Amino acid sequence: MASEQAHPEFVYRLATREEWGAAVKSGAVPTRDIDERDGYFHLSTRAQALETARLYFADAEDLLALEIPLSEIAAATKFELAPKRGEAFPHLYGALAATQVLRAIRLDRTADGFAFGDVL
After folding, report:
1. Per CATH, the architecture of 2-119 is what?
2. Residues whose CB falls within 8 Å of the CB of residue 23, separated by 6 or more in sequence, listed in order
3. What is the pLDDT of residue 5?
4. pTM for this structure?
C-alpha cells in the first residue's frame, strides 16, 4: 500500500524557467490553475517527475525540476492517490517559498520525453 512506503528525501515541482524566475523575485513559487482548482501544489517524487513532464509539459521549453527537501514541507504534505496514474503523489497543502527549494535541475528533452540534466 502506498501510504506504508517510505517517503523520499526530496520531492519535485516542475516549473518553467520563467516560473522559477518569478518565484525567485517574489519569494513564492507560483500556483497554476490546476493547483488552485484542487487546493494544493502538485508535486512528484524523482521517480514520477519525468513521466509527469512527458504527460503534462510536452510543449514546455526550459523546463526545470525544483528539488525540495521533503523535511521542509512535510507538515503540510500528504501522499495521495492519483487515480489516473495509479500512484500516490505528494500534494502540498500550503504555500511553497522559493527558499524551500534546494536547487533547480534542468530537464533535457529526449526522443521520448525528458531526462534530468544539469543543476542550475
Report:
1. Alpha-Beta Barrel (3.20)
2. 15, 29, 30, 66, 98, 101
3. 53
4. 0.91
